## 1
Amino acid sequence: MCGEGRAVCLGSDVDTDRIIAGRYLRTKDRALWAAHVFEDLDPTLASRLKGTVLMAGKNMGCGSSREQAVIALKEAGVVAVIAPSFARIFFRNAINIGLPVIECQVACKEGARVRFNLAEGWVEVDGARCHGTPLSPKMLAIVRAGGLVPYWREHR
């Protein structure tokens, strides 16, 4: 499974409270979550996320185990998240929601063209390729299906 988008660079230890603040979780309105993604980090970022690949430092998605953080990113139009390491619950939530994630140590250039291949585990930033960790066949199937629930419906 391949994809591409333009890079948005983040630092290390981006926690789920930074992705979507708890004050917005009193509702199940995914559009509201998407509109307020990263609001406390950069109030203008949510409106610029459609078609982007988030490129973070180590420990992406640490903090609360809220799956709403991953849902908010996907709803905001994030194509994939790339980082050298993820908090395990964030990584699993991303797979379960159908948001592509790749563990790869790669330099980020804001706005650069990013291409990726989940099965082979590579990432290209403006044509420079780095190799990371490919997703397992089962994880690939879940992401391809659009998440765990659609995967289960498809494979009953």
## 2
Amino acid sequence: MVTNIELVRDFVNTLHKDREGDEEQLTSPAALSAWLEGRGLGRVRATALDLAEAVELREALRLLLLANNEVEVDTGRAERVVDAAARRARIELRFTDGPVLEPASGGLAGALGRIVVAVQAAVADGSWSRLKACRADDCEWAFVDHAKNQSRAWCSMRSCGNRAKARAHRERQRHL
């Protein structure tokens, strides 16, 4: 069972930025449909417009995860994109086995609405602040910060963290 923060993390990580070139998983409407269905978010026959909407939501979530990692970004625009996705999904409170938020819309709006609901659930259960995007601007990989004090800044110390620390060291040495 995938947790709420894992679903959001996996969605954001459908684009893997890399210094040698970006790797995009959502390369076509069919790829988006397959990704959504593979995560149990519904069977959707996506269009090019749907793909653009999904990518816009993904990048808005990435900005919010960068903000969780103390990177200065325009969260206002990101929040408006997430709000619009929630409105299109017509997210409602329903009482089935207790109160749950669910999208009333079907199709792509409902599938993306389930991702927005996962964001709200992560906020409600306190795990949202642990979901971050790597501070390296050539990476921005989403990760869950399991550090006790929630101080992780990079997806990995072996790659991004090491590069950042080496860059800072060279900069300090240059000014001596």
## 3
Amino acid sequence: MDNAKDWFGYDSLAFFGKVNASISHELKNVMAIISETAGLLGDLSEMARGGTPVDPDMLISSTESIIEEIQRGFTTIRQMNRFAHSVDTPVVSVDLMEILDLVRNLSGYLSFAGKTNLHTGEGTAPMALTCPFILQAIIYQAVVLTFQNAGPGAELDISVQSKNESTWRILFDGFSPKEFEVFPDDRITHMAASIGVSIDWDRSSDRLEIDVPVSLEGLPSRPGSPEMQPGGNGSRNRA
């Protein structure tokens, strides 16, 4: 993995921009509510100054609303920082559950997002030496596509299990047949191949399976090498 900068191409940049747009929209909503509530407090203050009785409960409710939005803003910023730092080191050992938790939080900022449930398995943490940013991009697109087709009332269950000594399997339950036709597209397939990830559909159970190698040892130093092009280690459907 000598050419680390080559891991982040245009598709990765597009993903980075899409997520940051959703985060900025969330922060904009936070600021809008704080601004409106602060305006209400200003009006109440003017009323009190003019001698009009002001209900203390209105002051308490407005103050609590501002505090709540500030906490929501801090939480959003923490997730933004987690996401931003995921590009610090192109290849690093990570806990897959932390990757999934971050993706769940990031996708939750979308207006059409439903509920994502994470199920932790027993035993050791699912650690993998991989490119966390690219893996996040793949998983994020899968989650977003699900909610785009199923709507905000949908629920998606994600879990991780050991496929074998060299591979972790991330299971997505809750997909509809619509996703089978469009995911993964060529860009996602190429990104997955660059880090040795395999994407399979189990049509019999409407389940998406993403296999993540425990280590990138043996993969070419740059994504896009001939043996890693789509078709070499890409996606396939299972009946």
## 4
Amino acid sequence: MVKTIMVVDDEPGVIYTIKQGLEHEDPDYKVITANSGKRCLELLDSDSRPDLILLDIMMPEMSGWETLKKIKENTSWRSISIVFLTARTDPYAKSAGCFLADDYIEKPFRIPELKQRIDKILEEKKMEQDGV
């Protein structure tokens, strides 16, 4: 079963690393990318509905916090799993991120660990939807 992951980050190197890494680790992964929160919302609005969004916090124009708020305000999008993937390591951001999103992963990260955490979230969501 194909798992669609949207990566939202303003750093092209991070986007490239995640896309190549996840698609190499698992051929069932399809990674779509957005270089800003605004672009993320445009893709969601055009019916690109991922299973999970990897969302950077520190981005110009629209932060990850603001992007998350917009996603959660939309009834069609609010059930999409969100994982903050960020260089912010301060306790406040981590605490808020863990509360607001499905997971909070600090940069730098390793692709196998990232994939494992994504798989766990998607499996839990599937079990929840199946009523298990």
